[in-house]
Amino acid sequence: MTAPSHTARARSFDAAAAQYAANRPSYPPALFDAIEELADRPLTGARVVDVGAGTGIATALLRQRGADVLAVEPGDGMAAQFRRSHPDIPIVRGNGNALPLATASADFLTYAQAWHWTDPAHSAPEALRVLRPGGALALWWNSTPLDIPWHVAQARRIEGRFGLHPVVEQGGSASRAALTDPTGHLAFTRRKVRWSRQVTVDTHLANLGSHSIFLVNGAEASTTFLTEEKQILLKTFPDGFIEETYDVDLLVATTP
User: Fold this and answer.
1) Where would a tag sit more exposed on the chain, N or C end, judged by fewer CB atoms within 10 A?
2) pTM beyond 0.70
């Protein structure tokens, strides 16, 4: 069986936008504290462009921090869900490889779970073009820490059934790849922020099912796996609740 292409994975979210919005994890306040510390400037009052905004999970939190936020999203389904969820936040269609924005127009460019869908040969120069002097590019991913036994066991089951995720949402390889800057002008500082949330087993499985590795393998294969997974999890968590733990892998670079 041929592995789904990078483009097919990127486009897979449009059909699951509502599931994504309802079940994906958010981000802790400590993440935004770290962004401000590493950028050496506050988000409050800043012009922030959230690229690959998806359904607006990060965008809304940036707005709550007092930022003047514009969302950029390429996907039809994701943009439509964004507008339903956040009708008061402006959104434009586009992607990080060719931003529909004026030069030197943003104080921050943010990519929440999105930089790995871009081609850094294009998205890195675009970031430098759009950011003002002293502006900051902030990239982050919620990654699953592999020092928690049940997370490790589940990651192995997923890999055994579907193979290792080529974008690798486990272990931080996407963020490590971002450290290879094709422009030579982005000196990233890295920070990890651990946090957790308690959810039902069903919410946890719906979150899993909203990831591209499941979406591109079809409903039958995904449903079979998630049904089996529910029985395994209920043996470990008989009360039906799970504490999902995340390490937010954060990279921040400032422009000259």
Assistant:
1) N
2) yes
